[in-house]
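User: quick one, sequence for these tokens?
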């Protein structure tokens, strides 16, 4: 009897122990997993709870910081008792003035509005799901403050500020063929082509995310100011200040896209750089069963008195330097539609529904040669479309980021390293130096996009633009010095995209260009400048050049 009683008591005790362990496990799971059962709805911070219960530090982590490559704060959450949840998202003044805000975005808790990198890296900054650390799990269980991860960018604050400062004053004003609109919308990209790191990304017009954050204020007057500003910003469809024009804007690229046609012609073996074109071949091209493309700048007298531009046969290199539309319409046609479109896809440019965009770790808009559908029907890419696209017009919709990728490929002897702005993800409490950076040099398509000898030939053509082509005649608005004499050894291509009103102005470039006499080593940086209705692309060459001069004297330090 006593033996049976002992067995019964022992079994009952074991059952209570097992039940206790099960209940403890469930309680711990609810505390740490924030779910009542596996795969169930979020208990705190989900759609089924009130806003007041989403506040840190008890239920949600304090949002992590965003910093530049050197630890300069871009965005952080600061204590503020007048704001909902007792903290306020704060953006540095230099971020707003330098045109970086469209890349960074905004975070508004009250209305759940989020954009830019704040949205792209929401999980890491908020430490949700995959972003959680073991320390935060323990803190959640103990109801202690929890923190999101810090996100370090490849952006360099000083270069970003410099690029914004020269955006307008380094453009050339006063001439009939130059920029005559003050501060047109546009962008600047500065990239290290050898790693894909974005050093600066300017987008104008910009906006003030701090004013959007006022929506989180519990002060009625401040909250109303936030409402007014949000209405102003998000209803401005023409200026679109929250749009990151560098990566999300797509435009007709004008003559900068001759670089793509030149690459296709050289790399496919269709033409060599010294291929000669007679007067008739260089100045007029009749598309088979289609339109006639003329080198209008030649007939309009733009090149009158320039010896090289009136010498025939003219080489493909000089046709590139003088930006001959007829020659590059002819070149695209000679390459053939299938091959030419294949080269466009090599740079992540969509052709209808075909192609894969080059990955980018911030919001972006894919570039296209032509749309997949027009009025519900498949778009037909004809010989006229190929000719127009060959010199940068047609139905092309290309982002500055895509042109940066193309230019970077030329700089690296054929490798397109995927561009990126995020450098490190650093858990709270750890130093940036103790965390390895996200790997650089991720090659798009896994290998070279074009042959090294093709890239070298394009760099030769880039230098010809500076040495005696469309960029030769530009002089610095402050010093009067010609581009080739500034010591930057900059090579590139100007572009003037014909659209309504003033043309769009483009300039793609790399420096130093190793094909320039006296240049040492390969390109360290590439810069793309694009301005909406900025008129001639040649107006923008010193915007890029002044940034190169700054970088030459203030080289970027890797961390």
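Assistant:
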């Amino acid at each position: 009897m006593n033996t049976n009683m002992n067995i019964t008591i022992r079994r009952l005790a074991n059952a209570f122990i097992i039940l206790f362990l099960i209940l403890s496990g469930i309680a711990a799971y609810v505390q740490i997993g924030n779910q009542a059962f596996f795969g169930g709805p979020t208990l705190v911070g989900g759609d089924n709870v009130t806003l007041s219960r989403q506040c840190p530090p008890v239920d949600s982590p304090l949002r992590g910081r965003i910093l530049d490559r050197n630890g300069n704060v871009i965005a952080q959450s600061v204590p503020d008792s007048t704001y909902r949840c007792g903290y306020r998202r704060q953006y540095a003044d230099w971020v707003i003035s330098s045109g970086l805000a469209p890349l960074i975005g905004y975070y508004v808790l009250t209305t759940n509005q989020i954009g830019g990198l704040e949205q792209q890296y929401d999980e890491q900054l908020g430490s949700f799901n995959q972003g959680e650390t073991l320390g935060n799990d323990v803190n959640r269980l103990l109801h202690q403050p929890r923190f999101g991860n810090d996100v370090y960018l490849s952006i360099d604050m000083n270069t970003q500020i410099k690029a914004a400062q020269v955006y307008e004053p380094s453009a050339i004003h006063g001439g009939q063929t130059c920029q005559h609109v003050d501060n047109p919308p546009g962008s600047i990209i500065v990239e290290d082509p050898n790693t894909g790191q974005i050093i600066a990304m300017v987008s104008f017009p910009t906006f003030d995310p701090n004013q959007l954050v006022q929506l989180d204020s519990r002060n009625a007057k401040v909250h109303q100011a936030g409402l007014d500003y949000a209405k102003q910003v998000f209803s401005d469809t023409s200026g679109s200040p929250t749009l990151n024009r560098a990566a999300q804007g797509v435009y007709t690229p004008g003559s900068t896209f001759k670089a793509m046609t030149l690459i296709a012609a050289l790399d496919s073996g269709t033409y060599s750089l010294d291929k000669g074109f007679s007067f008739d071949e260089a100045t007029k091209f009749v598309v088979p069963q289609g339109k006639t493309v003329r080198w209008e700048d030649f007939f309009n007298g733009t090149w009158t008195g320039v010896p090289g531009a009136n010498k025939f046969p003219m080489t493909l290199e000089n046709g590139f330097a003088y930006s001959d539309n007829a020659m590059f319409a002819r070149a695209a046609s000679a390459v053939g539609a299938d091959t030419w479109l294949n080269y466009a896809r090599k740079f992540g440019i969509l052709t209808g529904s075909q192609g894969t965009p080059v990955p980018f770790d911030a919001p972006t808009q894919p570039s296209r040669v032509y749309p997949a559908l027009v009025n519900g029907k498949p778009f037909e890419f004809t010989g006229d479309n190929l000719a127009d696209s060959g010199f940068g017009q047609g139905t092309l919709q290309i982002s500055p980021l895509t042109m940066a990728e193309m230019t970077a490929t030329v700089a690296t002897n054929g490798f397109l390293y995927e561009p990126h702005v995020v450098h490190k993800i650093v858990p709270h409490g750890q130093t940036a130096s103790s965390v390895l950076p996200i790997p650089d040099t991720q090659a798009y398509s896994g290998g070279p996009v074009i042959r090294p000898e093709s890239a070298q030939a394009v760099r030769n053509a880039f230098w010809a633009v500076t040495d005696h082509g469309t960029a030769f005649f530009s002089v610095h608005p402050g010093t009067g010095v010609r581009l080739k004499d500034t010591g930057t050894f900059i090579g590139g291509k100007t572009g003037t995209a014909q659209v309504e009103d003033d043309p769009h102005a483009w300039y793609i470039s790399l420096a130093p260009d190793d094909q320039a006499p006296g240049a040492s080593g390969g390109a360290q940086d590439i810069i793309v400048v694009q301005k909406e209705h900025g008129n001639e692309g040649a107006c923008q060459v010193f915007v890029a050049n002044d940034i190169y001069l700054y970088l030459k004297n203030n080289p970027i330090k890797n961390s």
